[in-house]
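Incident log entry.

Two folding requests arrived from the same account within the same minute. Monitoring flagged them as a possible duplicate submission, but the sequences differ. Recording both here for audit purposes.

Request one:
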Amino acid sequence: MWRCCGWQAKGGNKYAKEVMQSWANAEWFTAKPKVAEKITTTVFFVKGETNTDDLSPAPDAWSRPDIPLHGLAMLKIAREGIVPDKDGEVGPIKQIEKLKSKGFPLAYVGDVVGTGSSRKSATNSILWFMGDDIPYVPNKRTGGVCLGSKIAPIFFNTMEDAGALPIELDVSKMNTGDVIDIYPYEGVCKNHETGAVLCKFALKTQVLFDEVQAGGRIPLIIGRGLTTKARKSLGLEASSVFRLPTAASKDKPAGYTLAQKMVGKACGVEGVMPGTYCEPAMTTVGSQDTTGPMTRDELKDLACLGFSADLVMQSFCHTAAYPKPVDVVTHATLPDFIRNRGGVSLRPGDGIIHSWLNRMLLPDTVGTGGDSHTRFPIGISFPAGSGLVAFAGATGVMPLDMPESVLVRFTGKMQPGITLRDLVHAIPYQAIQMGLLTVAKAGKKNIFSGRILEIEGLSHLKCEQAFELSDASAERSAAGCTIKLDKEPIAEYLKSNITMLKWMIAEGYGDKRTLERRIASMEGWLAKPVLMQADPKASYAATIEIDLNKITEPILCAPNDPDDARLLSSVQGDKIDEIFIGSCMTNVGHFRAAGKLLEKYPGQLPTRLWIAPPTKMDAALLTEEGYYATFGKVGARLEMPGCSLCMGNQARVGDKTTVVSTSTRNFPNRLGKGANVYLASAELAAIASILGKLPTPKEYLEYAKKLDATAADTYRYMNFDQMASYQKIADKIEISAEARKAAQKLHG
């Protein structure tokens, strides 16, 4: 249509020329009001940390596409300074309306804002009460102001996408009900009545002004691009209307980090330095079911009839086990929507998005996903809200202001009984010791926030193990994560994954062409296995050294904060009521280990044990090997493969219980109302289920020794190419010449 308009304009069509000239003049942008010199707002202050569970509660995930309805659940759990209309059901609507009666729009203000999941629904909820109507678009709002001493990076980006103005600044002198004047161009905030300066600040980027004026980052990118095309078609010079993102420096740095090289490759350059705006190619994009309906709506808004990203995958892991009627409709309709655009759709009951998507990855490539735990163990991903995920899938690129990196380097040798989960928790533990991370929310310090976590010193890890580390970078509020791995475990992983993808084709999964193309790309890498490496002189915002020799007891994260890493000895003896072994942080080896610890226990456990394998393939293998019989014997509750308790929107633990969980995070009320949740390894969780308490380090090590003799078999990962039931089916699948040609064109 755009080309047609251009041709008609050149052919003398007066109306077509007017349209082209309007776009060339950027009238779509200039007709909208600029960001005001002074913004007067009433403060709505939420003390401590606001996570996306608070703003978009998981049990209400079914209503996310209906923004006004879903918004009623925002902050529905009472907390200091927040008075819900009906505790646990309806948020502080009356409190919000009373503040609005002062005559000014509200600003959402907090110590730490937006940690946790990549939920655009959280942004939607805030803007429904504090944003501006969009002409001719019902039940959706834009604009609004969000202030925080720390704003989580995914949430910040989602606010940008929605046309809001997010600002990180000192909020210590602000309280609910205060009226403040924000001077965004000057970078100062004042008390409206007295004129006293409350704080000074600097915007993340001056482009924020254009994003707000355009109604969001995505409309700005699309509109700016069309203006450029119109001017080029009319023979005009580049527009001077827009503020331009930070361009790449012409000076070559002393070295690039691994992440900077991966993003550089996706942009067609050697590397991308921090602060540079870029639009890397999205090789792999993931979508899950509680955000999928919103992603679908965003794709419709973008008029997307076919994905430009090489592989887009949709899962149903968050709602399959206990679907509501609206979820059943989603299960029936969303797969065809995705497949018809060339994407790959899983099926309800298949399991967790990440456990599948990781098996579709290509080394040293870049991707994204509508789940904060889309954290690739090979390559790098930048998780995002549903709007940006839709944009990435539709256009094949994603806007990115390249973050700085923090290097975490492991040295030494792992000690007896210590697990990968302990190393996951060793990262925040060591950062706390170094003064780079604080648990307190007021004046929060977090060296990882908004930066890329780059991990070295564990290159021998299997990819399944590496994912435990990259997955948990979400809890650090990191923008992304890379892990330096050897070629051998990656080659082993890809060989296994080729078999799995061929098995998927044979089982009728689609889009077949996309799966074939990805298989061909994997085979291409295996034929020429080359991995990027960080340059020795690469620069990092901080370096954290962790000596494995000094980690001699398990490290847990205490209730209810994934930053609150503590040694087992400091929390030993705490009574435990329930245990959850599941989530994307687990693999088949964890369930075998738990089974071996439980197999000799007589009778029923003194605790309530939940078991939820990550995929249906894990569940089938554990059943075949007899572990399900063991779990049943001790009275465990066996859940459908998937997210289960982890998100908190399906089954839940008892109110005010104390829990040991292998899940990703332990925010207040996430697993159960008033529950106190420890995050720990599957091994420690199994021992706690037996003892009914957190063991002492000595007790733990005595149990852990029982796993040593069979460790090689216990922690044997699912290599599908070595499993006859999968390989026999995969052998029947031939990859088309068309798919191989397409893969060669995409990846060389």
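Request two (distinct sequence, not a duplicate):
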Amino acid sequence: MAYECFELPNSNGTSSDIVLLNVEHNALNAFVHYAYAIPGSENINNLNNDRGIPTEQLRDWANNPESIATKKVFANEYYYPGQSVLESGDTGSSQTNTSIRLGALETLANIFSGRITLSDKDPFPHQLSLQQFMANNYGRTERLLIADEVGLGKTIEAGLILRDALLKNNNLSCLYLTRGGLRADVKSKLKSVIGLKDGLVDVISSFTKYGEAAELGIRGIKIGSIEAARRYASIANQKKLSNEYVAPDIIIIDECHYCSAREPDLQPDNLGNGDATQAYRMAYQMINGSYWLNSKKPQLVILMSATPFRSDTQFLNLLRLLSHGTRSVPNAFDGVTRENLVKSIKNQDSSITIVWRQQEQVRNWGGKRFFPYLKIIRPHQVRILINLNTDSGRT
């Protein structure tokens, strides 16, 4: 089939990307460059409906000679996908949607370059939007809390962020902590996104062995057990970690709601005496470079949990853990009120980012819900009256 290039219009009438269209069969859908970049598990008919663009939504190329793309192409100049939207000053949904599409286009480019491998998992728009945000704010964002609801693919999001970081630094070291029983699953998901060989994405068996390897220089993504890591948070057990200069560039803590503390006046020097969990103490030490001897703070910390909002005080202490020691919040414990902490995190130039999305907010590339509306009918009590007829002896 012969395809030609056309601009895909958005709601404002400005171009947002390049599409391919079979001009001889107008009844067929058109497709963006990356529509089939990552093959899915659906059959071809479903893919055609899900990823195709109805032709009536496309701009008539011949009747738009003033478009930026047309002028540049005929002038033998470069035209970058989405250029007319990104340079238009539009800060609304058009620019956001264009950025998301460009993120998918970047994924395609990395597939063809061999940097990542083909996967049967399509990155969703909300996952690519976070990846693009982190890529655009590389070096500025020090701490990230991904609080997306269950099923929205937090591990895939972390994988996309790690993939970009590895492209910038081949010697990157990352320590990924999760529940012990989930380590193999995390490894599988990360490899499906990043496509690294065994040895660069791997499960570690113990923290003493990890420390020995890291002391000599270790790179790649090592997946450890949060249960094993928290054992060494106490002063007595920390002596068993005799390794020095262990300092991962990135630390990711999944299921971070286990890092909890209910003390309203929590202070770093009383974590061992208060009600802070071993996991909270471990996380504080790793994030602030005191877990190993002569360690240092990681460049990026990612906390992940679908349920971080267990109680008001516990969430506040999680925010303290997330933000303490950053450029935006040098000290999140001493004299910092709840209001000031939230204000610092919400600041446009903050080095701390919190992402929370719900299932009802997530859409596919066609703008439709991924998750269906569910009507839950809860069990209800039924009152049964029994009449006793003592005269007849029956009930």
